[in-house]
Amino acid sequence: MDQIVNKLLLSKLCTEGDNSIAVYNPADDSVIGYIPSLSSSEIYQKIEQSKAAQQKWQGKTASERSAVLQRWYQLVLENADDLARIMTMEQGKPLAEAKGEVMYGASFIQWFAEEAKRTYGETIPTPVASRRLMTIKQPVGVTAAITPWNFPIAMITRKAAPALAAGCSCLVKPANQTPLSAYAIAELAYQAGLPQELLVVINNHSSVVVGDIFCNHEDIKKLSFTGSTEVGRTLIKLTADTVKRTSMELGGNAPFIVFEDADLDAAVAGAVASKFRNAGQTCVCANRFYVHDSIYDQFVDKFITAVSHLKIGNGLDEGVSIGPLIDKKSKTNVLHLIDQARAQGAQLRFGGESLAGCFMQPTILSEVTQDMSIVSQEIFGPIAPVLRFNDVDDLIEKANDTIYGLASYFYTQDLNRAFKVAEALEYGMVGINEGIISTEVAPFGGVKQSGFGREGAKQGIEEYLSTKYLCIGGM
Ligand code: SIN
In 3D, which of 119, 96, 404 has the Cα closest to residue 251? Predict the structure, then answer.
């Protein structure tokens, strides 16, 4: 076992039993270890402890909080290789990609360590001569995060770092498939000097149990969720009784558009990166490709050539670029989408085969049309459905014809068109001549049923702050 697993994780692992959750390696279905499932009363106790710790933490200066986050950031960098190995083992993504995620996750800690010092209020010109008006920003209090398995570290730091920087505490419920990365990243925060009650990892056999407690507990003032739109809807309803602040980063159905004047090689490279990162298991993955009729065949040929070079295998092995899907259920769903599309008239141009265990071939489908079910569903797997278009207005209508509005992409060399299309796309994020757009310095988030709230950037910390208005009279 890796050094970090020994040093940081062994104390968190437990033996197989009723109160334990098995963690599997999706590459070979082996059990990596067991983690404890906390009872409801243990979770309530952790919330109480977190509340007490948060009250002290908010009394620290921004510089003091920032210093702890800076130390955490440094420790994540020092342990990046080990963190990446843990991630690959429990999540499946190739090691280089896992390392990329560790660095991406670390970037949120560094960014919010800096933003901690910039939570400015404002002075407001007074309408009454005897008064002075101002606002101050204060932490919302104890917060909770429910994070997904596709980014086991970055989705935690993107929520916990701004929470901690703002003076909040954060209880994290990681996905049951990937809790070891959560424990490891939290352990490094403790080593950096963060009191354990401020960043608490909570697992239970049932995500519903934890979700219910998080949503209904009076002392939890904010819930941040990354996951499916379906679960997001339930959480929004459940948080209504306590009128809790929420931010929701939900599903996507990203269009990837290639105009006739696009740099075709750049578009193909962007398409591969956007579609096949994490085996197609990201909320911002290109979900459907619209390619202008005049370059359609050329694009599809080049796309097939590029995808044929992707190496499938255990993410720990050298040179692998596509790992397994997270579990067999997920693979079954994805394969079903291929069968369904073919039955509806799509042509299988590459891949399409189920491989051993959780592995499957990256797949390209051509002659896909807007009415096919694969176009309206979030695929969450390595399938690229390619559609033809001719007319821009019709294209925009089709690109926007979805309940989702997270990421979108298009390739063109025409600046005029770039602005018009970017403005017309009903999405929270638009990549123009870029297939990977995520960064800690820009606001990540969606519109429509892809959710609300923004993560990263200067907006990210606002989600964890309340604005208080002060009116000073008798001047
Ligand atoms: C996600 O898939 O939810 C996050 C992807 C990213 O941050 O790039």
Answer: 404
